[in-house]
Amino acid sequence: MTELTTVGKSVIKVDAFDKVTGKAKYASEEGIGVPGMLYGKVLFSPFAHAEILKIDTSKASRLRGVRAVLTGKETPKQRSGMMIDDRHVLCHERVRFVGDAVAVVAADSADAAEEALELIEVEYRELPALFDPEEAMKPDCPVILHQDLQKYTRPIYGYLGRDLPGPNVHTHHKVRKGDVERGFKEADLIIENRFQNDRIIHCQLEPFNAVCYPESDGSITLWTSGRLYINHGPLCRAFGMPPSKIRLRNGYLGASFGTTARPERFAALAAMKTGKPVKMVYTREECFIDGLNRLPKIIYIKDGLKKDGTIVARQLKVIVNCGAYADHGPLTIRNGAFHASQYRLPNYKWDAYGVYTNEPCVGPVRGFGSAEALWATEQQMDIDAEALGMDAVEFRLKNTVDEGEIDVRGQKVHSIGAKECLRKAADWIGLDEPARPPEGRIRFGKGIALGNKYTMADTASAAVVKVHVDGTIEVFHGGDECGQGLNTVLTQIAAEDFRVSPDKIKIVWGDSARVPYDFGSASSRSTLYIGNAVRLAGQDAKRQIFEIAGPILKTAPGNLETADGIVFVKEFPEERLTFSDLFLPAAREARGALKMAACLEGGGEIIGKATFWGHPSAEDTETGQGEKLAMSYDYGVQGAEVAVDTETGMVKVLRFCSAFDTGRTINPKMCEAQLEGGAGMGIGSALYEGFVFSDKGELLNPNLHDYRICSTQQVPSGEKMKSMTVEDPHQEGPFGAKGIGENAMCPTAPAIANAIYNATGARLTHLPMTPERVLKAIKEK
Amino acid sequence: MKKLIELQINGDTYEVLIEPWWNLARVLREQVGLTGTKISCETGDCGACTVLIDGKAVKSCLYPAMRARGKEIVTIEGISPNRKDELHPLQEAFINHFAVQCGYCTPGMIMTAKALLDENPKPTEEQVKEYLSGNLCRCTGYVKIIEAVMAAADKTEAEV
User: Which of A395, A495, B80, B122 sees the fewest Cβ atoms within 10 Å?
Assistant: First the structure.
């Protein structure tokens, strides 16, 4: 391979200028100053579980400036959902959590819409509510949330709806390998534990918002602050509209991390009913209530160990409190089983259940199923090691799989830099060195954890590459620029393949009417999938260039190459054409002038297109086994040094490191930035963040004051934060690259928990590790 | 009842018709069209709406627009040295140090950092962290933001 000129370099982010100058356009900016714009607000249920007896909207409708007050009656009859069709756009006869959407108001001003909400009169009859998933999943649970569960359709992964142990259980996912009972019999030592985590939420800084314009042909143009194609399908299904009728658009996202809510539905509903454009902006509180949050799991784990440090059996029972509607829950539960790919587990059994309760709905949060599982398993690894009298790193190294082995899901292991990551992180954090002596009530400790995050195999990306007469390469993709740097990565990849400088690349994204299909920026997949699609589309465009240039240069297309906007004969580089020479003379003369003639001699344009599809294998629905269920895994180790105040329970992270296997780093500084950001979010999730509910299911901390994310004060910086990469190229990655975004926070919480244990001897089993829980654990140890 | 008021923003005078309870962030974005100022929490917790009022960093979501009459307001759109395409040293440092991810906190972060450097041109890392602690960022873990502010401070000082 020739030397890379752009890939592997810290190219400046293509969107940075717009973002530091305030020019960058987010969905929030859409619709400002548009005459006739209506503003929408949603009425959310105050009860966790209740029957709607009557809704009187007459007073609200009469308020000056109010143009529509809509209730369940005005919404489609069919239920829909991401995985299970269990939800109406607005509630019909029942509310199932505090925050279930009951009505939508559209008015001339946001103030009027808000005032109207208070005038809607709803008569409820409260019903007994379920909050404890272990109670809710019992076969004889007296409260049933969805009487029609058995009748609901499941658009994807329907097999997750079999062998359900109770009427409120909607998902059961299994993995079986070897014989776990035999494994336990062979074991010298059995270790059993229970772990648990609370709900967390993304807190992307841009609040959820949407703007909907009704079009004259009955279609709608809908702006979203969320992701493009991930929302497009579910929106079409919610309204029973074909994909061509909903033109979905987004701009820069004020971050994602998987965040999803429903303002698009409400804006669309109101716009279609009134025939007027509607803008809907959530308050921060509404972001907490309507946004999908990270699954609270209860995990029972049982390991069988040999004295020599081999894990012979592992069994997991996972109970997930999925809240009132299934949404992304079933997929997150199923994908959670990918978390175990880094270890050799000859006998393995996993049963994960998704349970309806009267709490908010769950969905994708950075780490999609893996982070919460690793919270349990990566502490268990430390507990196992200690019980065996082994070092935590040595124990992990002994059980970590190598290239070519078959992992716990039946997939051949490939591109695994886990062992090197383990050594690097342990070395930097100084795991071998003696702990810093206590200072009064302050105890110090260190810990590590090894995480992995899969990228799904059953997805696809398409891309279009258009070559302009002035030599600009325009790349159209359907992914999302959430700040992770996708547009920069794709710029680098296209620049590399066309051997041009990055400023010759122009990225077009964020409009379902203009960009090709993509699964979307999820599953740490964008670099790998969209990167490949762009490479393939670029090859298609180059093939066309060479076919046009061949006859002119009197050589076979295969003898041609391109760089810097020039097509040349490989053997005789002085025989050359510019891209503009390929076009009609009028176009050649134009060269950036205003003449419109970007047409080829033979007609048409140079447009390459391609799809990259993951070619997944089927999953055995009884054993969870398959040869290619994941496209790739990125492995990473984090190390933390903490100070624990044994009197207050406060924990401070003093030093922190990440060592991750990127396959191939496309942009080192952006990669570092992802790892630092993941650490910041991970530290927040470990120590401070968690939903707190009243006993009636009301969320008590739906704001950034009571729900604390890290500020500069909680995250190590400068010399105290270190990011390292390992490169074990992936055979299917573009230039060998894999994703990294999600795993960047997957091992954080267990690494910190292991450090707290190292400092105090107290084992924290319930996430987040608040001062109260730390003190309790210290007292009970 | 709406009121017509005058505001001095980035050296220009604007006449805006507003309800007396509207906060400055809303007026900047919706009445004046300066959408570089972001709204995220409207409770003063995140700092995305930070602007300078008479040189001090202020969370404009908590600041009534009426109170800004007669004061000098500076937003992210107003810190370019040539008031056009030239970048302020902080903007340049944020770009070069990869301190920008989603960018939603960036304008507020830069405005707070500007207030700091105007007050204290050579802050220590701890002082930077302390001063920026009211500006939340969910993407970066702050490491590169702090780096960028330190670098801009170095550069500003070198120029003096």
Answer: B122
